[in-house]
Amino acid sequence: MTFAPFWPAGRVASRLAGLFLGALAALACGPAATQPLVPIETARLDTVWQLPQRSAPAQVMARNESRLAAEVGGTVTRWTADVGASVTRGALLVQIDPQDYELAVQRAEAGLQAAQARLRLGEAQLARARELVTQGFFSQEALAQRETEVALQRADLAAAESQLASARRQLARTSIRAPFAGTVVQRMAQLGEAVAPGAPLFVLAETGAAEVQASVTPADIGGLRRASAVHFQPQGQDRRHALKLLRVTGTVQAGSRTQTVRLGFEGPAALPPGTSGLLWWEDPTPHVPASLVVKRGNRLGVFVREGRTARFVALPDAQEGRAVPIALPGETLIVVRGQAALNDGQSID
After folding, report:
1. pTM, 2 dp
2. Is the pLDDT of residue 178 over 90?
3. How far apart are CA 195 and CA 177, in angstroms?
4. Which of 119, 136, 207, 335 is surrounded by the most beta carbons within 10 Å?
């Protein structure tokens, strides 16, 4: 009697698994495992790139907006301009009671006259003493004393002149005048009010030298610097006013994460300070649309065609949802359809 060989259950299972894996390997090595070509569409980069229009909120600002304060104490006896009034340079804005300061000037003038008189007398006595010394009727010691007295009198005269100049300066400070041609933004001076040195009286905004101030993100500062044309469009108006970039602050504001820029008007612009609107400029650097940007790993970039292969080009400055600056040649073939399914180095039709 012949008996069939006995296979333990464990060995049977192991043999079946080996046969199954071998079959899978054979299938993988066959023609069916060849990766199909991915259908895509490409276009020259210079036919799809953009020169994006940028904008930022902006406001017309006076180049100088000065808070004029009292330099001396006293009572306001007169004010000449109210809010909204236009004033010329040097125009009187506020008059503080000058009486006490006029008296101080008179006292200083009297002191100066006394010092001049004492010096004239001393110089006459010194000249007489020198004559007497030559004649032997006056000692050298007495002459030296006269010379010292004259030197002290000259010092007293210089001090009296300084006191008079200071008194006149204080008197002039009772008249608050416009440091430039401008418009009164705020008037705090009240008739009959006693003010102390440093008390604010007027806020004056300079006219004819307005600037535009805007808050721009750090990513857009470079494009703004390179822009060939920058414009300000007041709110509710269609007209745009040409600007030139004056300065950019070097610090980023903590709250808004923006930098402040100041721009000047290219020509005359009758826009009063406080006018709000938008700052417009065109970034001259070519950008690819956000729709062409894909993410691979932790990097954002685009796919380009190299023969029959797709190559992923990472763009370091890329941000999701925004057009991205690109430095590739204009004739580069960039994938514009099917890029979402591609991998770096994949074959394409």
Report:
1. 0.59
2. yes
3. 16
4. 335
